[in-house]
Amino acid sequence: MIIQGTLVSSSGTFKSQIRVDGNYIVEVGPNLGQADITFSDDCLIFAGMGDIHIHARDDVSESQTYKEDFCTAGAAAINGGVVHVADMPNNPVPPITDESYHEKARHLAKRNPPIHFTLYAGIGPGTRPLSFAVPYKAYMGPSVGDLFFKTLEQLDETLSHYRGCNVSFHCEDPILLDEHANAATHEAKRPAECEISATRFALQMIEKYDLKGKLCHYSVGEGLPLIREARSRGVRVTCEVTPHHLYFDQSDLTDENRGKMQMNPPLRTISDRQAMLAALREGTLDYLATDHAPHTLEENEQGISGQPHLDTFGAFVTWLILDQKFTPEQAALFCSENPGDFVNPYTSPKKFGKIEPGYTASLTVLNLNQPVTIKREDLKTKCGWSPFEGITFPGSVEAVFIEGRKVR
Ligand SMILES: O=C1C[C@@H](C(=O)O)NC(=O)N1
Fold it and tell me: Residues in domain Amidohydrolase-related (predicted)?
């Protein structure tokens, strides 16, 4: 099969063709032959986009599958133009911290092709690395689920066993969270200082144990200089940012939408939001990662934290490009290439993130001239709502290919 159109990578945008054989890209160039599928000039062809922070909530206990499962998360991902995801370990009961649960979850995730699921393993008090390579996740303080540390000393001791591993951090300091527990609002209960203090500690841990570190859902401007400084000294740290911390801030909160707008870490100030947009543009933030956290709307209204975002991933990227003036090349970096680099050590023989021979033939095609208004009936997530309902994005997902097959 030959696909033709405007191809985007971090190094440039050019008209070209892609030859696909089976599951893989075998050739890329301008004159490969008669195209089987041609995309118009309104469309941009990206290497398949990846969301490396989601909560699919599927496990053998099935205790959370009324909110989402691997199958509905996969359908929502395809709907949003996402071809691979990395799933968090905190929600299954028990959390996925050992080999047998990780293997069982991998087995469940495989029943639902074609989306590729990379599964994190959790780090909790007293856990140890698995015998096979996985990315790890450490919750510094309580969020949703029972996997977290009550003190940072306990985290330090546990991490001493994970030297050299790939560890992602949920950065909220448990002691400071405790100190603010009686504050009036969700935002005041989890203030910026919790994240800043946790950032300092995570960076120390990454350096001390030579981790390949990642800071999840970054949201505070004041923490960014700490990250830049650590990187300038060669500390191996990358960072995620969510659609909600780029699009919403505390000025969007009303009495009516509080439940829908609750997540950990919470919405911050306008200046934090602007700092996140600037940091994504200049590369301090490396991944658009949604923290897709589906709960029923009733649960959100009763105070549980998290927003679903997979269905709207691609449309949101068109907002970044067209309204926020990100270049398509920047989007290719934080939606395709960097997420690919993150998961590729765990996905062999599949390889994500680039439109090059040898890579998996998974592609995300965005139409920059086809606005979309987000409507509940178009969503595939089982929780059935989106914080973007009623909002019109300037472009939409035109097509999705997964391993050589057009799936949307
Ligand atoms: O860290 C998290 C976890 C997530 C969930 O629902 O599991 N919800 C959130 O808002 N933040």
Answer: 238-407
